[in-house]
Give the backbone structure.
Amino acid sequence: MISLIGEYDCKVDAKGRFMFPINLKKQLAEAFDKGFVLNRNLHQKCLVLYPVSEWNKLNKKLAGLNRLIQKNDLLVRKVTGGATGVESDSAGRLLLPKSLADYAEIGADIKVIGSNNIIEIWSKSKYEEFLNTPVDLEQLAEDVLSGLNFNDDTE
């Protein structure tokens, strides 16, 4: 199971590439060499970088939806539209396709964030805006986590 953590400041070069953070590469181990799928985040103006194994899990669930049902068809299109396979070059850089970088308003300064089983890529300024958005974290945690049993040691 992939469990990614960490927040990294990176620079995007003139060709749209950034050096993948070494610490995240270590966390990914052999999954790093298998490549990624990059796409838009559904909720925020950022990008989501899925290790191929995680994308395949998601895509398998989406493939099980009946596309003759309009809501299913819309969801599949929203989740898979824009999905782009990416691999690192020999220097360990990843290329951000222009259309995806434009969507996330990515410039030269980005934040790369390990977020459980995915990696988020943010414009540094957009990420700072997100962090400064007021939220009642206590209430959010109660709403989202109240049904979970944190005393259960099973995975």
In short: The beta strands are 7-11, 17-19, 36-40, 47-51, 84-86, 93-95, 109-115, 118-123. The chain is about 35% helix and 25% strand.
